Write the structure tokens for this entry.
Amino acid sequence: MMGKRIHNFNAGPAALPFEVLEEIQSELLDYKGSGMSILEVSHRSKWFDDVINSAVERTRKLLNLGEDFEVLFIQGGASLQFCMIPMNLGLKGRPVNYVNTGTWSTKAIKEAEIQGKDVNVIASSEDKGFSYIPEDFAVDGNAAYLHFTSNNTIKGTQWSRFPDAGDVPLVSDMSSDILSRPLDAAPFGLIYAGAQKNIGPSGTAMVIIRKDMLDRTPDHLPTMLKYTTFAEKNSMFNTPACMAVYTIDLVLKWIDERIGGLQKMEAVNREKASMLYDFIDQSHFFRGTAEKESRSLMNVTFRLPNEALEKEFVAEALEEGLGGLKGHRSVGGCRASIYNATGLEAVRALMGFMAEFEKKRG
Amino acid sequence: MMGKRIHNFNAGPAALPFEVLEEIQSELLDYKGSGMSILEVSHRSKWFDDVINSAVERTRKLLNLGEDFEVLFIQGGASLQFCMIPMNLGLKGRPVNYVNTGTWSTKAIKEAEIQGKDVNVIASSEDKGFSYIPEDFAVDGNAAYLHFTSNNTIKGTQWSRFPDAGDVPLVSDMSSDILSRPLDAAPFGLIYAGAQKNIGPSGTAMVIIRKDMLDRTPDHLPTMLKYTTFAEKNSMFNTPACMAVYTIDLVLKWIDERIGGLQKMEAVNREKASMLYDFIDQSHFFRGTAEKESRSLMNVTFRLPNEALEKEFVAEALEEGLGGLKGHRSVGGCRASIYNATGLEAVRALMGFMAEFEKKRG
């Protein structure tokens, strides 16, 4: 049935747990005795109702969310959220605060500006090519929210502690590190994530919204751009991305039952990242690009002595079954994305290959 | 590997061709030697590039589209299109025309009104409970576009000929009959369809837009709500719903190579619908609800002598492996959705069951 699987270091869409893929495959022609594929069952059926309710409950359990939070599934990825957030959570006469840590923050800021919001970028790491996470900045106590990108896939940086914004609700794009570690959701008004990195395939964003934020949705918005539309109908005002929600539910089950929850998931993720960063730090051939204290546990970015060697490295790695190691096209270099589903054995295989490559070409 | 498959008469998500499901299953762990599942491959990879280009080309071929049309994949279903259309295609100082043939048209009209457009509903079949398609109406020559719903899933009506609007571009929601029959796209400015009925699973809409319509997109719109964003980037400004596009491509291949194109697809669809309507018309027990000349080839709506019998009919049918025969919750009664992938054998099985049920209870 299967050929040779590779170790998948893609930045997203990215690796899924093999057990999840096997489960999808095994029930693809007949979903739980329904006589239909999960691709065919009605979203108004008890089968899909069970799927979406399970995905919501597993998210609640893993993130320890109280009843004051809703878990929603909205199509359009994080990119649609960039505009929905200022549309829904902006408040008349009050600014919105953003921290700029790279490409994705910059896009989020642009969409708030298009909406005509009073956008204050209160901190930025652009001065050093977005190679670090800003530490000292003041949040405007009058701001409607403070937005930041919790992990930056392109530059390989990550917030290890979240900013303290007092009573100003935090809003965060967690596309690339959601459910990779435990989280205290209390200070957050909204957390969003395109699913295709840590928790599923492409096709839906997960949106976790604190219920008091729903009071902010203006009446005049298009129906499909209001968070209230999704909150009132358990994400089924219209047909959701059923296959994506189903796969997410299986990934959450895997995190909960196979890994043992988010503390254990974080321990594995820390171990993978430490191994790889330690290897890079002792090497005179490979060089990390993010500042040490801002390093991402999810996306390990590094350079080789020159671009020609980087190209050979990526190509030869693929021949050895190590895929997706090319850096983002906007920055070049190399990147190993090591999300939840990329296991220790993949990182070990990568380090083995790196050592060998350095020995040959270093 | 599989249990008992049912005959699936759901209105959407709906049946997919069995060969398509088998192909998905067979390559789910290793997509074409990539060593990754299609759920895991990067949308920036040659594998997915081939998938989306193939889906676009097959659509072009089947619908005989010229180079003046773009084929796009946009998340959010037809419901998001309801607002994107007036946002993008409305013209300052000019009205937009709509024909109202039921629930979905009504929703499209509502979203144009929310946008503050000058909405003229130039015809409606609401006077007879949306049981027919209006014939005599005048289109405002100054209108930015004329919108209509080509097939109405809830009431079981369908436009057999499209309205003549002169130079006013037609815009049509074809969610429930796209690629069920050949089409002359020339008078259309935009055609859109949630994929989950005739061409794939839920999770993406197909949008076919005439290139001159792209000049209308206002600059100030949010990036993800502009058709130009999708047209300029081959639907990959951000990560698309990869699994949905992949499945659509396989369904289009099935229409093209197994069925033999849209003329043959229409012939099969006509045969299925004729058989079923003929059976209903000769019966004194079952009664069709749509006016004969407006009947849908896709959704056959019918009633039994009373609601208790309808409930028994739907329940007993499911026991016999005939699923999804309940009418839409807003109208009650029964409905057999017989989209492309629901074959002649399914309709024959349904008719056999109906005859037997009538004999027992009639």
Summary: The radius of gyration of chain A is 21 Å. Residues 262-282 of chain A form the longest helix (21 residues). The longest strand of chain A covers residues 188-194.
